[in-house]
Write a structure and sequence with these properties.
It is built from ten helices and eight strands. It has 323 residues and is α+β, with helices and mostly antiparallel strands.
C-alpha cells in the first residue's frame, strides 16, 4: 500500500523511475520474505531497503526465454559449493549488479521443472564475464552473462536444492504482480500528458490533433483503460495485503498494461507524425519515442504476452491445457 501511494506521488510529480533498484525491491526482496531463510534475510533485506545493493535476474537463456523450464545452465554440487557453468541472456543491470537471483539445473538427469535450484550469486565471483547488448533506445543495460566454473556457496540457496521451480514461480508472481505497479499507475498520467499534447499539436491539415475525431476517440478509450488499470492495481495491492503474495492475476495486469502502452505510443505517433522520429539515442531527447520503443519491451520482459495468456487460461480461468 505504501508503494502504491509512493508511485502515485512520483507520477504526479513526473519523477524519474527507480531504475535498476526495481529488481532488488520487487524480485529477490519479496522472494526472501516469502521463502524464509533467516540468515539470508538478515543479510540482504536491510541492504535492499537502504539501496546499498543492486540485483539482476539470471533466468532467461539463449534457448530458454519464455520456456524457462528448458534452461540448461549447470550447477554441479561439489562439497559446500555449487559450481555453475553456462550462459544467461537479457540480464538487465548485470554490469552494475552486486548480486543475482540465479536459476540453474542441479540435477543433470532432470527434465523441465524438476531439478532446478534458485541461488544467490555474488556478481564479483571469479569466472563471471558480462557482454552488454545495445538496444534500439541506445541503452546497454541488458547483457549476456557467461559462467565458467563459478563457485557459489550452497548456503546461498533459497528454498531447497532441486526445488527451485516453486521459488522461481514466487519470484515471477512478484515480478508480474508488483514490478508493473508503477507502470499501471503511470499510465493515467501519461494518457493525460498525451491529451495535453493533442490539444496543442496541429496535424498536417492544420487542425489540432484533439479535434480529429479518430484521435479523440482513441485517447478517450486509453483514458478509460488507464483508469481500469489503476482500479486493478488497487485491487491487487489489497489482495497481496490480505494473502501475503500476488496470485496469477498478475499475468492479467502485465498483459493489459503492455497492450495499453503500445496503443498509447501508436496514438502519440499519429499526433506527432515525423516528430516521433526525432530521437537522439537517449530518453531525454524524446520521451514519447523512448516510451513507444520501451512498450515493446514491456510485452516481452517478465514473460511474453503469449505466455501470460497461457497462465491466465490455465491458472485463472481453469481452461484445459493445449496439447
Amino acid at each position: 500500500i505504501q508503494s502504491l501511494i509512493w508511485f502515485e506521488e512520483c507520477e504526479r510529480a513526473n519523477a524519474p523511475a527507480y531504475g535498476l533498484m526495481s529488481i532488488a525491491q520487487t524480485h529477490p526482496g519479496p522472494t526472501l520474505i516469502a521463502r524464509p531463510n533467516e540468515e539470508l534475510k538478515a543479510f540482504h533485506l536491510p541492504k535492499i531497503l537502504k539501496g546499498e545493493s543492486l540485483w539482476c535476474q539470471g533466468f532467461s537463456e539463449p534457448g530458454s526465454g519464455s520456456d524457462l523450464a528448458s534452461l540448461k545452465t549447470k550447477g554441479v554440487i561439489e562439497g559446500d559449493h555449487i559450481v555453475v557453468t553456462g550462459q544467461k541472456i537479457w540480464t538487465t543491470g548485470a554490469g552494475t549488479a552486486d548480486y543475482q537471483e540465479l536459476l540453474v539445473r542441479t540435477d543433470p538427469e532432470s527434465q523441465r521443472h524438476k531439478g532446478l535450484t534458485w541461488i544467490i550469486c555474488d556478481m564479483r565471483t571469479p569466472g563471471i564475464s558480462i557482454r552488454p547488448i545495445e538496444t534500439m533506445m541506445g541503452e546497454s543495460a541488458i547483457n549476456e552473462v557467461f559462467y565458467d566454473q563459478v563457485r557459489i556457496p550452497i548456503s546461498n540457496v533459497v528454498g531447497e536444492i532441486n526445488a527451485g521451480w516453486s521459488v522461481a514461480m514466487s519470484t515471477l508472481a512478484f515480478e508480474r504482480g508488483t514490478t508493473f505497479l508503477r507502470d499501471q499507475i503511470s499510465l493515467s498520467a501519461k494518457v493525460e500528458r498525451a491529451i495535453e499534447l493533442a490539444r496543442r499539436t496541429r496535424l498536417p491539415d492544420g487542425q489540432l490533433a484533439i479535434e480529429d475525431a479518430a484521435i479523440a476517440d482513441k485517447l478517450a478509450t486509453l483514458k478509460a483503460e488507464a483508469l481500469g488499470h489503476r482500479a486493478m492495481a488497487v485491487a491487487n495491492v489489497s489482495n497481496v495485503d490480505r494473502t501475503g503474495s500476488p496470485g496469477p492475476e498478475g499475468s492479467m495486469v502485465k498483459l493489459l498494461v503492455g497492450g495499453t502502452y503500445k496503443a498509447l505510443g501508436e496514438v502519440v505517433t499519429e499526433i506527432l507524425g515525423l516528430g516521433m522520429l526525432d530521437y537522439d539515442q537517449c530518453r531525454a531527447s524524446n520521451p514519447w519515442a523512448y516510451d513507444f520503443m520501451n512498450s515493446w519491451v514491456v510485452t516481452i520482459a517478465g514473460g511474453t504476452s503469449e505466455i501470460q495468456k497461457e497462465i491466465i487460461a490455465d491458472r485463472v480461468l481453469g481452461l484445459p491445457r493445449a496439447r
